[in-house]
Design brief:
Distance between the termini: 11 Å
Shape: globular
CATH superfamily: lambda repressor-like DNA-binding domains
Oligomer: single chain
Structural class: mainly alpha
CATH class: Mainly Alpha
Number of helices: 5
Number of domains: 1
Strand content: 5-15%
Strand order of the largest sheet: 1-2
Helix content: 55-70%
CATH topology: 434 Repressor (Amino-terminal Domain)
Radius of gyration: 11 Å
Length: 70
């Protein structure tokens, strides 16, 4: 099973935010955002920071998908 952060990118798009804005408000690193851009796993601490900053839940940030889908 793979992870996809497409739900998070949709939230940012809807809020007219850039990844740079997310880095600042969620206090996460550029490396963390780069890992999400490559659909790599990130820590629950970072997921928690993102959820707190955006007022959402982990289900709003990522989803699990089959290995052939992104």
């Amino acid at each position: 099973m793979n992870v996809s952060y497409q739900p998070l990118w949709k939230i940012l798009e809807d809020k007219k935010m850039k990844k740079k804005d997310l880095i600042e408000i969620a206090n996460i690193s550029e490396n963390c955002v780069a890992n999400m851009g490559n659909n790599k796993y990130i820590s629950m601490a970072n997921i928690s920071r993102i959820c707190e900053a955006l007022g959402c839940t982990p289900n709003d940030v990522f989803r699990f998908c089959a290995s052939d889908e992104r």
